[in-house]
Design goal:
Elements lengths: L4 H36 L1 H9 L11 E5 L14 H4 L20 H7 L12 E2 L5 E2 L39 E5 L3 H4 L12 E2 L7 E11 L4 E5 L8 E5 L8 H4 L5 E6 L7 E2 L4 E5 L7 H16 L7 E5 L3 H6 L1 H7 L5 E2 L7 E8 L20 H11 L19 E5 L10 H11 L2 E5 L7 H9 L3 E5 L15 E6 L5 H14 L3 E6 L16 H4 L9 H10 L7 H14 L3
Parallel strand pairs: 7-9, 10-14, 11-12, 11-14, 12-13, 15-16, 15-17, 17-18, 18-19
Antiparallel strand pairs: 1-4, 2-3, 4-8, 5-6, 6-7, 6-14, 8-9
């Protein structure tokens, strides 16, 4: 070996040695990291593989079944379809953010803006031939609250075939259908009930009894299958009852409900059922607080008599503080903020989503335990310890006048001749009370006021939601603004009021009673054919017929409505 070759060889060996050591370090670091991930988050790997398969890359043994019912062939459209499908027709009060919730201000502002591209629901016939929106399809079932052993499973026919389509909304099902081709089922055990029911137009609901693991960090709910079970179900659900409203649901956290034989270890055990739901959506408007959360939550959870744990996704702390009286009446346990919780919870009974039907209404024929709006109204009066369950009959207390509450408004749909209305009502024998209902109102105070009156009246708007506090047989008078809003007014408040046991009266104003006459010439189409403007969409309807219209009641024409309300108070 030459004299200069030895140092070169040594340097080469040293470089190879450094490369080898570097390689060992990199490989070792990778193995340590992989071991840490597997040991600490095994379920994260499970869900990243099973819950996030792109549709176009799914294997042939995976079927993506769209769970949105197509409208029947006998459907039809009317000129008021634009109103019938839009949930925000009464979303009229400006959102007032309570103090201490600055962090949520931007998100809430976005959610309360109008979405001009939102879909309008097509009117479809129901079983008896009458029209209804897709909201009216209902979800049957509901548990009996028993936790003694495993409930006997009912037979389930799963032979219905669905067209394979790409999902267009967030709620869809992924199932292994290899066995389905052989026995005509959707790979659900014979005699078993699917984990979820997506048949309702209004809301998807999953209900599980057995060993159920709720893992907020993984946004997952696992139903633990017994040995030998062939069930293989995976569902995606957004637990807010506005199914099909993509604008609303885009702000809701999606959860995974899955059958499994592998799960993370429980860190907290519960001996009461769980109900999981969201609070983002359209909450912040009084009407939507009730129709989207309060009524569905009552329907879903009241059977447990307080022995139920609420887990809330997309938490709105100010909302839970505002309605804590109601929440504490339904559940004896502090709510769990799903998004901030790091526990792995074990339950024997879990409901994901809320049972919901039409707007501000319970379908007692489909609701668990046949709950009704009478039950809900009674519950709300009890929650706030209101004294009057039934209206005062005239003559029972000769010196006591029947009380009339007029809901006052300051920005839109105001009474322009309020003093005249008050004078006429007092002349007829009413004691008149004037107050305003909005998001910032003290609920307990306003509930006591409403419960103290015999008749409540106001222009179509969220404030009429307070009719839930009226005593039985009291009267609700809704003033319908000009513009063909009769159907939606009855749907939002008329039907619910009657289902609560109230006397409902609907008064549609004439052209001469509308402030629109100051904005348009008398021969304008907005007076000749207001329905024709509905095709321009909800944004136009709201701006024209709601936000820019006030009311000046014709005393002679409206007088008979108040007289009828008085007659209803006679024995």
């Amino acid at each position: 070996m030459k004299a200069g070759e030895r140092p070169k060889l040594v340097r080469g060996l040293r470089q190879e040695s450094r490369r080898f050591r570097l390689l060992v370090i990199v490989v070792g670091f990778f193995l340590v990291s992989l071991t840490f991930v597997v040991v600490s988050k095994p379920d994260a790997i499970l869900f990243s593989l099973n819950g996030k398969l792109p549709v176009d890359q799914a294997p042939t043994s995976i079927l993506i079944q769209q769970k949105v019912n197509s409208p029947p062939a006998t459907s039809w459209k009317t000129s008021t379809d634009a109103l019938r499908g839009d949930p925000r027709v009464v979303d009229d009060e400006a959102y007032v953010k309570p103090k201490g919730t600055k962090g949520e201000e931007e998100e809430s502002r976005v959610l309360n803006e109008l979405d001009p591209t939102s879909g309008m629901t097509e009117l479809t016939p129901d079983k008896d031939g009458s029209g209804h929106t897709s909201d009216e399809e209902t979800l049957g079932g509901g548990g009996d609250g028993e936790r003694k052993g495993k409930e006997k499973e009912r037979g389930h026919t799963a032979g219905e075939k669905h067209k394979v389509t790409l999902p267009t909304v967030s709620n869809y099902t992924i199932r292994d259908t290899e066995n389905a081709k052989q026995d005509g089922t959707s790979n659900v055990q014979q005699g078993s009930k699917p984990l979820c029911d997506f048949s309702n137009f209004r809301a998807n609901v999953c209900e599980m009894r057995g060993d159920v693991i709720v893992h907020p960090n993984a946004t997952s709910i696992l139903y633990m299958e017994p040995e030998g079970s062939q069930r293989d179900e995976l569902w995606k659900i957004k637990p807010y009852p506005r199914k099909g409203d993509e604008f609303c649901l885009s702000h809701i956290t999606e959860l995974t409900v899955k059958s499994s034989k592998v799960a993370p270890e429980c860190t907290k055990y519960h001996d009461v059922p769980a109900v999981i739901f969201s609070l983002t959506g359209y909450t912040g408007n009084l009407f939507h607080d009730f129709t989207d959360v309060m009524v569905p939550l009552f329907t879903t959870a009241s059977e447990f008599n307080g022995e139920v744990q609420f887990l809330i996704t997309d938490m709105a702390l100010w909302w839970t503080i505002k309605y804590q009286t109601v929440l504490q009446k339904l559940s004896k346990y502090p709510v769990i903020d799903f998004s901030k919780d790091d526990q792995v919870h074990c339950f024997k009974h879990v409901i994901v989503g809320l049972h919901a039907y039409m707007e501000f209404t319970i379908d007692s024929s489909k609701a668990p335990h046949n709950y009704s709006m009478v039950d809900f109204s009674r519950f709300m009066r009890g929650a706030y310890s209101l004294g009057r369950d039934t209206v005062t009959v005239l003559g029972e207390y000769p010196k006591v006048k029947p009380r009339l509450l007029i809901i006052k408004r300051h920005r839109t749909r105001m009474f322009l001749n309020l003093d005249e209305i008050i004078a006429m009502a007092e002349e007829l024998g009413f004691e008149v009370v004037i107050d305003e209902a909005n998001v910032s109102s003290d609920i307990s105070r306003f509930a006591r006021l409403v419960n103290s009156v015999d008749v409540m009246m106001g222009v179509h708007g969220a404030g009429l939601t307070n009719c839930v506090y009226l005593p039985q047989n009291a009267a609700l008078i809704q003033i319908v603004p000009w513009g063909g809003l009769e159907w939606v007014s009855r749907t939002d408040f008329g039907n619910p009021a009657e289902l609560m046991g109230l006397r409902y009266k609907q008064y549609s104003i004439s052209v001469d009673e509308s402030s629109l006459t100051d904005q348009y010439p008398s021969d304008h189409a907005i007076f000749k054919n207001p329905i024709s403007f509905h095709k321009r969409g909800f944004d136009f309807i709201r701006q024209t017929f709601m936000d820019k219209q006030n009311v000046k009641l014709d005393g002679k024409r409206f007088r008979h409505v108040l007289l009828e309300a008085l007659d209803n108070l006679n024995p």
